[in-house]
Amino acid sequence: MREFFSVKEVAKLLNVSHSSVLYHIKSGNLKAVQVGKIYIIAKDDFADFLKIQRSKPKRKRKEDLSLF
User: Of 9, 13, 21, 41, which has the maximum CB count within 10 A?
Assistant: First the structure.
């Protein structure tokens, strides 16, 4: 049997907001299934999302950029 996470659980695991998780779902970065008014994320799909996110180069913050 497949295991699932709620949006709230994924947000807590990633230490991000509920809105951030919904953004990733709606942009297609994180696979989820809508059941009524809620989304559920399969454990395998969450693992795939993490692998992709870890392989992406990190974005530099404005304060990390120095002007010459």
Answer: 21
**Residue 14 token pair:** 């990633």
Give per-residue pLDDT as tens, 3-61. 999 999 999 999 999 999 999 999 999 999 999 999 999 999 999 999 998 888 776 66
> Which residue range is the domain that position 46 belongs to?
4-50
Query: For residue 53, which of 6, 15, 5 has the smallest C-alpha distance?
Result: 15
Q: Collapse the DSSP code of 64 into the 3-class scheme (helix H, G, I; strand E, B; otherwise coil) and give the result.
A: helix
**Domain membership flag for residue 66:** no
Is 62 inside any structural domain? no
